[in-house]
Prior knowledge:
The protein is an alpha/beta fold. The chain has one domain (24-92): Methylglyoxal synthase-like domain (Rossmann fold), CATH 3.40.50. It has helices at 3-10, 15-20, 36-45, 47-50, 59-69, 83-92; strands at residues 26-29, 54-58, 73-76. It starts with a helix and ends with a helix.
Amino acid sequence: xxxxxxxxxxxxxxxxxxxxxxxxxxxxxxxxxxxxxxxxxxxxxxxxxxxxxxxxxxxxxxxxxxxxxxxxxxxxxxxxxxxxxxxxxxxxxxx
Length: 95
């Protein structure tokens, strides 16, 4: 972590950090087949916090989360069809 970021995260004055990180985050939810149930339980547990953010995920995971929680998840292709890479690409260009 750069010295500047380390200072921001350790600072008691979060004003500068809040200017850099928006209040509404875009959160990617991706899980391997054997971990989808765990992720869904985590989303259910954190639903009240997550509903304030934009959620994205791969096709299957996003669909399962929507069905289980009622939260909207913007869906990319299924993992085996490159959905993980699509999300990674968007992260790398900050979208």
